[in-house]
Amino acid sequence: MKLQQIMESIPYTGAEALGELEIEEITCDSRRVMPGMVFVCVKGGRMDGHDHAAEAVNRGAAAVIAQHDVGLDCQAVVENTRRAYAVMCANFYGNPSRKLKLIGITGTNGKTTVTNLLKHILEYAGHKVGLIGTIQNEIDDMALPAKYTTPDPAQLHALFARMAAAGCDYVVMEVSSHALEQDRVAGCRFEAAVFTNLTQDHLDYHGTMENYFQAKKKLFSLCRVGIVNFDDPYGRRIIEEAPCPIHTFSVADNAAEYTAKNIVITAQGSRFAFLGTGIIARIDFPMPGMFSVSNAMAAAVCAMAAGIPLEKTAVALNTCPGVCGRTQVLKTDTPYTVIDDYAHTPDAIEKILSAVREFAQGRIVILFGCAGNRDGKKRPLMAAAAAKGADFVILTSDNPRSEDPVKIIQDALPGFEGYDTPYVVIPDRYQAIRWALENCREGDVLLLAGKGHEDYQVLDYGTICFDERKVVQELLEKIRTEGKRAVLPPQPGK
Fold first, then answer.
1. DSSP 23-71
2. Fewer CB atoms inside 10 A, N or C side of the chain?
3. pTM for the whole structure
4. Which residues contact 401 (CB under 8 A, 6 or more apart)?
5. Are 382 and 415 in contact (CB under 8 A)?
6. Helices (H) then strands (E): counts for the chain
7. At what angle do helices 111-124 and 310-318 cross, to 10 degrees?
8. Contact between residue 29 and residue 47 where contact means Cβ atoms under 8 Å apart
9. Distances (CA, A) of 356 to 28, 273, 331, 337, 345
10. Which stretches does DSSP call E strand in 41-188?
11. Contact, 310 vs 71, CB < 8 A?
């Protein structure tokens, strides 16, 4: 493809002859450059692609796209290379997103659940659907691995092209704040956008909650219609500030356009009445908790905005099997209940514990850790949320990455101050889960928080296989054959 076709709709300055160059591929990673490729200089948090422009040419780059003069004969200068890169990738793949109806979901918590619920509803209504998200990417019923919540533009548009070729007419996708801030979806037009909530997360990247909010809000300048959680204060700001029409939903406030009433939460799921002006439907689906009701409301309102009748939407939700690692009750054949959930922020921990409290018959025991090389400010807040909502806490590791797991735990410990909730510290997550399984009592609910769908753990020496659902089954079998170990945890708390 000629460079001028790839650069369509992107103003640039440079030698006119550049437009006639034949381009094999686009990249913003100088290490991937091969002869015939165009290299786009993108400035990141730690590295600036402009510093590697000459290296890219030495590796065979046919052209370099930059934000300022880098002193090369084959350069073209644009105003914003991130935005240009996204549009170039769309042009290179023939703008496949224009053949699809895109639905984007953003927010701190709930994106994965709402995305999966929407895919289920759309498929029930007869549509062929692609999915892009945290757990995996899906083209109809074919699953593909996902590295990032929202992929790099080259990967994103390659996925769109595969989805369009497979006959998909809808794509539901999680749109992260990083992706919005980095213009990964620049040039995309969304049929609808959903906002779930906003609580503290990713401040290591965004710096402030206001910056985090402004990144999320960008999605609503890229869509035909917005669906917004009226119960969230940032949601109410989007209602006031977004340039697109907005539909609102709530689990508590009659001022919203759509409201959940007569809510009943059990260990098996949630039941409620979906109410709007002149409409009502009964929803009964297998995900417990008020936040699950909110997620179901978001999916239902979005489906209706996409033209799916409420009757079909309700039946689809009532037949939904749930979402892997999202308030997932594990089959354990134990006198206590084990729930696996992705909760890894203070707000998510608070919400999942509140949901469990509504049906727990015994103690609530939570096992969680804090991620390494991520926002350290939320570590004590996570511990405080656990101490506030649980009856017993087991503090362990999550994905420590290159950080010292003990240091991460020490950062979290101040969060227990002011609470009488007993806790223990067991840095090794495998051993922590074993201790929890051996010490739970009849009627307890054991909540394994933080890993959810993840089937790995990232340690300082690399990534290991760690699927908690399988770990629980393996440990229960060991306990049944070996018996309980009379071993105290390494560091008892209160």
1. --EEES-GGG--TTEEEE--B-SS-BGGGGHHHHHHTT-SEEEESS--S
2. C
3. 0.82
4. 371, 372, 373, 458, 459, 460
5. yes
6. 16, 25
7. 120
8. no
9. 45, 21, 17, 11, 17
10. 63-66, 75-77, 101-106, 129-132, 137-139, 142-144, 170-174
11. no
Joined tokens for residue 401: 């990455």
Rounded to the nearest 10 degrees, the angle between the axes of helix 209-217 and helix 233-241 is 50
Burial of 145: CB neighbours in 10 Å, binned 0-12, 13-18, 19+? exposed
Dihedral angle over CA of 139, 143, 148, 153, nearest 10: -30
What are the structure tokens assigned to 296, written together?
A: 């179901």
Point out which residues pair with 367 in neighbouring strands: 394, 448
Count CB-CB contacts under 10 A for residue 13: 9
Q: Which amino acid is at 150?
A: T
Cα torsion through 208, 210, 215, 216, rounded to 10: 120
Sheet holding 328-329, edge to edge: 328-329, 337-341, 445-449, 364-370, 392-397, 423-425, 491-492
> Which residues partner with 284 through β-bridges?
271
pLDDT at 492 over 60: no
Spatial separation of the C-alpha atoms in residues 119 and 130, rounded to whole Å: 8
The 10s digit of each residue's pLDDT in 212-270 is 999 999 999 999 999 999 999 999 999 999 999 999 999 999 999 999 999 999 888 89
Query: How does residue 299 score in pLDDT terms, banded at 50, 70 and 90?
Result: very high
Q: DSSP letter at 22?
A: B
d(CA 391, CA 12): 61
Cα–Cα separations (whole angstroms), residue 135 to 132, 325, 408: 9, 9, 25
Angle between helices 405-412 and 378-389 (to 10 degrees): 60
Backbone angles phi, psi at 15, to 5 degrees: -60, 135
Supply 222's token pair.
Answer: 């890229």
pLDDT more than 90, % of the chain: 82
Give the other-Cβ count within 10 Å of 316's Cβ.
23
Distance CA 89, CA 153 (A): 6
Classify residue 94 as exposed, middle or buried by CB count within 10 Å of its CB (0-12, 13-18, 19+): middle
Task: Calculate mean pLDDT across residues 303-314.
Answer: 97
Residues 6+ apart with CB under 8 A from 193: 103, 104, 105, 106, 175, 219, 220, 222, 223, 225, 226, 227, 244
